[in-house]
Design a protein that fits this description.
The complex is a heterodimer of chains A (about 425) and B (about 475). With about 425 residues, chain A is an alpha+beta fold. Among the domains of chain A are: about 130 residues, PmbA/TldD fold (2-Layer Sandwich), CATH 3.30.2290.10; about 120 residues, no CATH class. Chain A is built from nine helices and 19 strands. Chain A has a six-stranded antiparallel sheet. Chain A is globular, with a radius of gyration of 23 Å. Chain B folds into two domains: about 220 residues, PmbA/TldD superfamily (PmbA/TldD fold, 2-Layer Sandwich), CATH 3.30.2290; about 250 residues, no CATH class. Chain B has about 475 residues and is α+β, with helices and mostly antiparallel strands. In chain B, helix 1 crosses helix 2 and helix 3 runs parallel beside helix 5. In chain B, the strands form five sheets. In chain B, strands 1, 2, 3, 4, 5, 6, 7 and 8 form an eight-stranded mixed sheet that branches. A five-stranded mixed β-barrel of chain B has the order 10-17-18-20-24. Chain B contains nine helices and 24 strands. The chains are: A alpha+beta (about 425), B alpha+beta (about 475). Strand 2 of chain A pairs parallel with strand 3 of chain B.
Chain lengths: ~425, ~475
C-alpha cells in the first residue's frame, strides 16, 4: 500500500499569519501473507533497497508469529467506480494565493473590530488530519491494483471579541469553491451577536443544530456504532437491532463515497470496492459497514470499509451522508417558540456507548430562540445527550452541507439536554 | 543527517532567511497487538525526513520533505523561504526570538535493554500470557493487549550555531478487558487507559506486573456489568493517580500554553481562561496544590536535553502553594510574559510538522500519607479509577470526566463497586476544593500519549506525576441522571 501526498496549511490568528507550512510525505506499507500468518512493515525509503528491506522485515515478522485461524487470503483483482476528486488547481495552490485569501478574511474581521483566526488548508493525496496516511495505491501479488487520488481545500475562520466568538467553515475538493471573505463575514456576524451572553439555566431545550454541530455528533456515533465488528461484539447500539426501528422515520443515513459532496476513495485498505451502504433507512437499522473478515463471519460480501489488515478495530464508515430537507437553518429557527441555536459543538466524547450518549460543549455562537427568532446570545453549555434519542425526535431538517467529512443537514431536535453551564 | 540539515540551512540563508533551523529525523516504531488469542496487529514502521523552519521578513515559513536527495533538500528549504515570504505579507510585528546560547550537545534517554533487539517471540509470549489470563475469566468479551516501542533520532541545527543530536527511546504497553451485556459495555484497563509508557528500554516492560494483574482486571470488567450505578449528586471524590494525571493535563497543562493564552489556537483548540493579568495573582488551587513543569524528569515522556527551539530543558512551578505563577513558553513568545529566556516547551511530533508549544512533563507534587491514610480520613466519598472519557471547554473552565470504575467509601473502607462514574466541575473551583494529596510513596509518573494539538494535527506524549488526591463537594453523575 502506497499512501501520502502533499499538504499545505496557512494558519492565522490575531489577524496575522502565525504558522505557514507545507509537507511532502509518502509511506509504503508491505504486508506479507504466508498461509495463516501475516506481518507488516512500513517505511518511507522508496529506493529498491528500501523496499527490499521492508519486504524482509514483513517476512521476518510473519514467520515468527502464530497462525491466525480465520485469516483470509489476499483478495484478487477488483473493479472500481471512478471518482472525480482531483482538482489540479487545488493541488498547485501556493502560499501566496492562500495568504491573499486569508488576507481578505482578516480584513472583514479587522473592519468589524474583531480578531480573526483560522486555517486555509489544501491537500492532494491521503495525508489525514493527524498525519495518518491512507491508501493512494494498492497492489498485491494476486493481481489486485487500485489507485485513487483526490484533493481537498478547507477554510475555517473564527472571529473573536474577547470570549465572544463566531465561526464558519467550508470544505470542498476544489479551492475555487471557497471564499474566505464570505466565511469571515458569517463568522463576524455571529461574533457580533455573541456579545453579552445571558446565562440560561441548564435543562432540556428545543435546539436547532447547525450542520457543523450535527456532523460532529454523527461522526462520533459512527465511530462507536456502525462498524460490523462493533455490532458483532455487542458493543454497538445496533447490536441485535438490525431490521428494527431505532430512530425516527425521517432519518436515513448512508455511507457513500460517491456523493458529490464526499468524493471519497472508491476502495478500502484491503482493496475492496467501497459500496454505498444504507445504515439507517427511515429510522430502521439496515446494515453495518463490513470488511472482508466481518463479512465472512456472516457469509456476506464486504462493503469495502476495511482498515489495513490485521487490525483490532474492524471496519469503519468514512463517508457519512445524513439525508436532509429543503430549507435553511433560519427556517428551522422559525419553528421554535423557545429554544437554542447551536453553531457548533466542541470536544465531544463518549459517555455511554450503548445509548450513544455524548458529552461536549457548545461553541462560537449559542443563541436564544424566542418566538421563532434569534433574540440574544446565551452562555455556553455542556451537554450530555443520547444521539439515538435525539434522532428519534427530529422536528425539521435544513438542506445538506459537508462539515468535517460528514454530509448532513441542520436539525431541529426536542429535549436536548444542556447539563451544566460554563463561565462564558 | 547532519550534512542534510546543514545543506538546508545554507540554502535557506542564501535565499534570504534571517534565521533557520533544520531537524533531520529518523523514526522507528514497533506496534504489536493481541486480541482474543490472536495477533491483532503487527507493524514495524519507520520514516526519515527533514523539516526546515525559517524566519523571512520577520515571519515564519516551514516546509518538510522525505526527499533527502541534494535537490530534494534544496527544494524543501527554498519552499520554506517562499512560504515565509507569504507569511510576511500578513503580520503585525517581526517575530523576536528570546536569546539562547548556541548548544553543541549529544543527549540520549536512558535505555538499558534495547527494545528493538528483543525477539518478537518474547514480546508475543508476554502478550499471549496476559491474553490467556484475561480470557480465563467468564464473561470477558474482548481481551486486548499491546506493546509499543519508539525511537526518535533527531539532529537539530540552527543558523545561530546550535548542533544538537538527541535520541529518545520509549517503551510501553497495556491491556483492556471488555465485558458486554444486552444494554451495557464495561471495560477495565491496566496499568492505565491507553497503556503505560516511559522513556526507557525493555527493562520498563519487565518492571510492570502485567500478567499478575490481568485476571483481576478482567474480573472487574465483568463485575461492573452488575455493579450499582454511581450515585448522582454532590460528593467528595478521590481520584486515583492516572485519572488525576489526565485532570492535570486538561485543566492545568493546556490552559498554561502561552500560544493558547495569546489566541494562536483560537480557531481550533481554543484559548485559555489563564489570561496574562492572572499570573502571580490567581488562586488556582488550595494551598496543597503545587504543580511543576519539568523537562528534566527522569524517564518521562517529555524529557529531553533541548527542545525544538534549541532551548535547554528546565524545571519551574506553574502553580506554587495554590497560586498560578507560570506559563509554558517558547523563544517567540517568552517576551510577552516579561521573560528574557524561553522555558523550552517547543516540540514537534516529527520531521514533517512545525515545532510549537507543547506541554512538558507537568506533575502534582506529593503531599503526605498513603492512600489508605486518605481513605481512613474519608467518612463518605467515591474513589474513581482509570479514565474512560474526557471533555473540556475551549477556555478550559468546564470539564467532565468518566472513569472505568469507582468504589463507594464509607467510614474509610471500600464498601461497594460502582459503575459509570462521571464528575464535572469548573477548573479553579475544583483545584481549590483539593484538601488531601497523598505522599511520595504513592506518587507515580503516569503518561498521556495521545495529546492532540495544532493544525495539521500533532500528537505529543507527556508524563504527569501524581499521587491520589481528594476533592470536596464535586458534582457526580452527569450523563446518568435518573
Amino acid at each position: 500500500m502506497l499512501g501520502g501526498g502533499t499538504e499545505a496549511l496557512t494558519r492565522f490568528a490575531n489577524n496575522e499569519i502565525t504558522q505557514n507550512v507545507a509537507e511532502r510525505r509518502y509511506l509504503l506499507s508491505v504486508r506479507v501473507v504466508q498461509g495463516k500468518r501475516t506481518g507488516r512493515a512500513t517505511g518511507n525509503d522508496l529506493s529498491r533497497a528500501g523496499i527490499a528491506r521492508l519486504i524482509e522485515q514483513a517476512s521476518d515478522a510473519t514467520r515468527l508469529q502464530p497462525e491466525i485461524a480465520d485469516l483470509l487470503p489476499l483478495p484478487g483483482p477488483q473493479e472500481y467506480r471512478a471518482v472525480d476528486a482531483l482538482d489540479p488547481e487545488t493541488e498547485a495552490l501556493g502560499a501566496e494565493v492562500r495568504a491573499r485569501e486569508v488576507g481578505r478574511a482578516v480584513d472583514r474581521c479587522r473592519e468589524a473590530g474583531l480578531e480573526g483566526a483560522g486555517i486555509y488548508e489544501v491537500r492532494a493525496g491521503t495525508i489525514g488530519d493527524y498525519g495518518e496516511i491512507g491508501a493512494l495505491a494498492l497492489a498485491n501479488s494476486r493481481g489486485l491494483f487500485a489507485y485513487h487520488i483526490g484533493t481537498s481545500a478547507t477554510f475555517r475562520v473564527s472571529a473573536l471579541d474577547g470570549t465572544a466568538s463566531g465561526w464558519a467553515g467550508h470544505e470542498s475538493h476544489r479551492a475555487r469553491d471557497i471564499s474566505g471573505e464570505a466565511l469571515s463575514a458569517r463568522a463576524v456576524e455571529k461574533a457580533l451577536r455573541s456579545r453579552g451572553p445571558k446565562p440560561w439555566a441548564p435543562g432540556r431545550y428545543a435546539v436547532v443544530l447547525e450542520p457543523a454541530a450535527v456532523a460532529d455528533l454523527i461522526q462520533d456515533m459512527s465511530w462507536i456504532s456502525f462498524g460490523a465488528l462493533l455490532v458483532q461484539e455487542g458493543r454497538s447500539f445496533l447490536s441485535g437491532k438490525i431490521g428494527h426501528k431505532v430512530m425516527g422515520e425521517n432519518i436515513t443515513l448512508r455511507d457513500d463515497p460517491f456523493h458529490p459532496l464526499q468524493r471519497g476513495s472508491p476502495f478500502d485498505a484491503e482493496g475492496m470496492p467501497t459500496r454505498p451502504t444504507t445504515i439507517i433507512e427511515r429510522g430502521i437499522a439496515k446494515s453495518a459497514v463490513y470488511d472482508r473478515q466481518t463479512a465472512a463471519k456472516e457469509g456476506r460480501e464486504s462493503t469495502g470499509h476495511g482498515l489495513p489488515v490485521p487490525n483490532t478495530y474492524g471496519p469503519m464508515a468514512r463517508h457519512l451522508v445524513l439525508e436532509g430537507g429543503e430549507g435553511s437553518v433560519d427556517d428551522l429557527v422559525r419553528k421554535v417558540d423557545r429554544g437554542l441555536l447551536v453553531t457548533r459543538v466542541w470536544y465531544t466524547n463518549v459517555v455511554d456507548p450503548k445509548t450513544v450518549t455524548l458529552t461536549g460543549m457548545t461553541r462560537d455562537g449559542l443563541f436564544a430562540i424566542e418566538g421563532g427568532k434569534v433574540t440574544h446570545a446565551v452562555r455556553n453549555f455542556r451537554f450530555n445527550q443520547s444521539v439515538v434519542q435525539m434522532l428519534n425526535g427530529v422536528g425539521g431538517m435544513s438542506s445538506q452541507e459537508r462539515s468535517g467529512g460528514v454530509v448532513c443537514p441542520g436539525l431541529l431536535v426536542r429535549d436536548f439536554h444542556m447539563s451544566s453551564a460554563t463561565e462564558f | 543527517m547532519n550534512e542534510l540539515a546543514r545543506l538546508a540551512l545554507d540554502t535557506a540563508a542564501a535565499r534570504g532567511a534571517e534565521y533557520a533551523d533544520a531537524r533531520a529525523i529518523e523514526f522507528t516504531r514497533e506496534d504489536i497487538q493481541v486480541k482474543n488469542g490472536e495477533v491483532g496487529g503487527l507493524d514495524l514502521s519507520g520514516s526519515s525526513g527533514l523539516g526546515v523552519r525559517v524566519l523571512v521578513g520577520g515571519a515564519w515559513g516551514f516546509a518538510a520533505s522525505d526527499d533527502l536527495t541534494k535537490e530534494g533538500v534544496e527544494t524543501c528549504a527554498a519552499q520554506a523561504v517562499a512560504i515565509g515570504r507569504a507569511s510576511a505579507s500578513l503580520k503585525h510585528e517581526n517575530v523576536r526570538l528570546a536569546p539562547e546560547p548556541a548548544h553543541h550537545a549529544v543527549w540520549a534517554s536512558e535505555c538499558a535493554i534495547d527494545p528493538f533487539r528483543i525477539p518478537l517471540e518474547r514480546k508475543l509470549d508476554l502478550l499471549f500470557r496476559i491474553d490467556a489470563e484475561m480470557r480465563a475469566v467468564k464473561g470477558v468479551k474482548n481481551a486486548e493487549s499491546f506493546l509499543s516501542f519508539q525511537r526518535k533520532h533527531q539532529v537539530f541545527l540552527s543558523t545561530e550555531g546550535s548542533d544538537i543530536d538527541q535520541t529518545l527511546t520509549r517503551s510501553g504497553g497495556g491491556y483492556t478487558a471488555t465485558a458486554v451485556s444486552a444494554d451495557d459495555v464495561q471495560r477495565r484497563s491496566f496499568p492505565q487507559a491507553e497503556g503505560y509508557h516511559q522513556a526507557l528500554g525493555y527493562e520498563f516492560i519487565e518492571s510492570i506486573p502485567f500478567v499478575a494483574n490481568a485476571r483481576r482486571i478482567a474480573e472487574e470488567s465483568v463485575a461492573l456489568l452488575t455493579a450499582a450505578q454511581c450515585p448522582a449528586g454532590e460528593h467528595d471524590i478521590i481520584l486515583e493517580g492516572s485519572q488525576l494525571a489526565l485532570q492535570i493535563h486538561e485543566s492545568v497543562g493546556h490552559p498554561t500554553e502561552l500560544d493558547r493564552v495569546l489566541g494562536m489556537e483560537a480557531n481550533y483548540a481554543g484559548t485559555s481562561f489563564l489570561t496574562l493579568e492572572k499570573q502571580g495573582k490567581l488562586g488556582f488551587g488550595s494551598k496543597h496544590v503545587n504543580l511543576v513543569a519539568d523537562a528534566t524528569l527522569p524517564h518521562a515522556l517529555a524529557t529531553f536535553g533541548f527542545d525544538d527551539d534549541g532551548v535547554e530543558a528546565q524545571r519551574w512551578h506553574i502553580v506554587k502553594d495554590g497560586l498560578f505563577v507560570g506559563y509554558l513558553t517558547s523563544r517567540e513568545l517568552a517576551h510577552r510574559v516579561g521573560d528574557s529566556r524561553s522555558r523550552g516547551c517547543v516540540r514537534s511530533d516529527g520531521w514533517h510538522h512545525i515545532p510549537m508549544i507543547r506541554m512538558v512533563n507537568l506533575s502534582l507534587m506529593p503531599g503526605r500519607g498513603s492512600l489508605e491514610d486518605l481513605l481512613h480520613d474519608t467518612d463518605r466519598g467515591i474513589l474513581m479509577e482509570t479514565n474512560r472519557s474526557w471533555s473540556i471547554d475551549q477556555l478550559r473552565y468546564n470539564f467532565q470526566f468518566k472513569t472505568e470504575l469507582a468504589w463507594e467509601i464509607r467510614k474509610g473502607k471500600r464498601t461497594r463497586l460502582l459503575k459509570n462514574p462521571t464528575y464535572q466541575g469548573i477548573t479553579t473551583q475544583f483545584w481549590n476544593s483539593c484538601d488531601f494529596i497523598c505522599g511520595p510513596e504513592e506518587w507515580k509518573p503516569w503518561g498521556v500519549t495521545n495529546c492532540g494539538k495544532g493544525q495539521p494535527g500533532q500528537v505529543a506524549e507527556i508524563t504527569h506525576g501524581t499521587a491520589p488526591a481528594r476533592f470536596r463537594k464535586i458534582q457526580v453523575g452527569a450523563g446518568y441522571e435518573a
